[in-house]
């Protein structure tokens, strides 16, 4: 007998928020509101202190949305290449720059709007070779936009100390003064405090939701998770996001209790690692339909927007358990400094996707433990030409997993450049992998 | 019981007729051409004729290769990796690493002691480490494929080829020719370059003895020598059958197993 499946009841709420998000950014200036652009990894609660009418546009999700709409993406990529951008740069960034260079803005449903809405300022972080430069060049393309980048490269969370946190906190304090200057607005610390609390709540809620996918049958498949997890990368400090995740958590919990799964027949579970090839999410569909294979998560969907305990104090084992909120940790946020201290510490210590950028050992433990905790039969790794940072150490991780008895398949592609994906070869890899594991196609 | 395995590659179509005791009754190899369906029909009929059999004698036909979907009469398909793995174990049971270099693709496969595929890695998107690259270079050097392999053995020094792409490599070869570099040295440079690229793929796996080389390029003595040199290991090629026939043998073995 097959597994019961059912569409998510809160699906439309998430979709509505995403539509509103891009539209709010577009229409902000009509109402005298503020808009800022930057990495989805930037300290989102910090600009929130400028007012309740401050709207962000985070670059990576925008680049992924552009990639999903292949025709738009092709035009954007070709436009920016004509301006001299190399094809081996970040795929998200090239879609974003191309969009700015074409002066066309994309809404979540693929509608194209002219002109591209210029932000009041760019606010980003500097962890990889791309993030700060992304907005330096975007600012140039837009004819000059004030830009501020926070350096967060202080090492992995388990080696964090007060001095390192202080280094980031001081940059955030400076950023607030800078924001006041470039926007002419007075900063509201109460709004910052609320935003910092919301950030922690939305990120830990997403961790708890991810944990529920350890159940069999898996209540969520990764394609759906792509639509859910992205909220933490759009505006995680927004109270509406907290409410959305509370709703989703209850629903996923109920699906687990009632045995509602993601697929009618789950005969194979796997995890992935890198950003997916957004223009070709049919890879997941192919696995589901042909092999009853469900992706139960990835370092990407779990690691970007969720908060996890991460490496233990000795730096030996990875712990996939939700990080504490300020309330759970008994930490009281009462002023600007304590708010900035918490958001700096919380992101530096518990944001999983920041940890493995420092060490392939961390990435190995993180991945291996994910395979075990989510009871995956295998990992399917995307050798992603679109992101140097995420692709770093991928093959070392692959070797480590193979040596430790994990079945691994790899395919090449690009998260955001449709020209770098070979559909037939990828399906061939999947078929070969499944046949080598003795997994029969569903009849 | 009699079955057929058919491998439709980008350059050659190969068919093997096998009985239930895994004896190869006949085989045929021919240029794939542009009409894959027609070619596969022709090679199958020729192989049946060689074996003194009729089409209705076949209990099962299994196809593999990039053109497997163009074999309308196949009962089943098997991926190239599985076919190559099964065929490799059949021709050399001691092989644990199989490297296949075909016209357009190259791949490496790890086998366990029972011949099961443990792991594999494929070249992607680039013909620089495959047979088409060699075809292009042979045209530029104006030699036959046999001469091309033999030439490399006569080289007195190794010169590097820097280009990572067929298009640029062609231009590099032309430059070397214009600089009066002997063809023997250019031939060795080309073979070394391909071996480099193929070994880079194989290094994604744990390369273990013994290494079996299959696919069309395994006919090229210059390439075999380059592989031995670069790997620092002995490299074997099938002794009883052409190296490019191995995946078709694997497809036939899949058919035998399926019928059983």
From TrEMBL, chain A:
<dbReference type="InterPro" id="IPR010327">
    <property type="entry name" value="FldB/FldC_alpha/beta"/>
</dbReference>
<keyword id="KW-0560">Oxidoreductase</keyword>
<keyword id="KW-0411">Iron-sulfur</keyword>
<dbReference type="InterPro" id="IPR017604">
    <property type="entry name" value="Benzoyl-CoA_Rdtase_bzd_osu"/>
</dbReference>
<keyword id="KW-0479">Metal-binding</keyword>
<dbReference type="Pfam" id="PF06050">
    <property type="entry name" value="HGD-D"/>
</dbReference>
<dbReference type="GO" id="GO:0018522">
    <property type="term" value="F:benzoyl-CoA reductase activity"/>
</dbReference>
<protein>
    <submittedName>
        <fullName>Benzoyl-CoA reductase, bzd-type, subunit O</fullName>
        <ecNumber>1.3.7.8</ecNumber>
    </submittedName>
</protein>
<keyword id="KW-0408">Iron</keyword>
<comment type="similarity">
    <text>Belongs to the FldB/FldC dehydratase alpha/beta subunit family.</text>
</comment>
Automatic annotation (TrEMBL), chain B:
<dbReference type="Pfam" id="PF01869">
    <property type="entry name" value="BcrAD_BadFG"/>
</dbReference>
<keyword id="KW-0408">Iron</keyword>
<dbReference type="InterPro" id="IPR002731">
    <property type="entry name" value="ATPase_BadF"/>
</dbReference>
<dbReference type="InterPro" id="IPR043129">
    <property type="entry name" value="ATPase_NBD"/>
</dbReference>
<keyword id="KW-0479">Metal-binding</keyword>
<keyword id="KW-0411">Iron-sulfur</keyword>
<dbReference type="InterPro" id="IPR008275">
    <property type="entry name" value="CoA_E_activase_dom"/>
</dbReference>
<feature type="domain" description="ATPase BadF/BadG/BcrA/BcrD type">
    <location>
        <begin position="5"/>
        <end position="255"/>
    </location>
</feature>
<dbReference type="InterPro" id="IPR051805">
    <property type="entry name" value="Dehydratase_Activator_Redct"/>
</dbReference>
<protein>
    <submittedName>
        <fullName>Acyl-CoA dehydratase activase</fullName>
    </submittedName>
</protein>
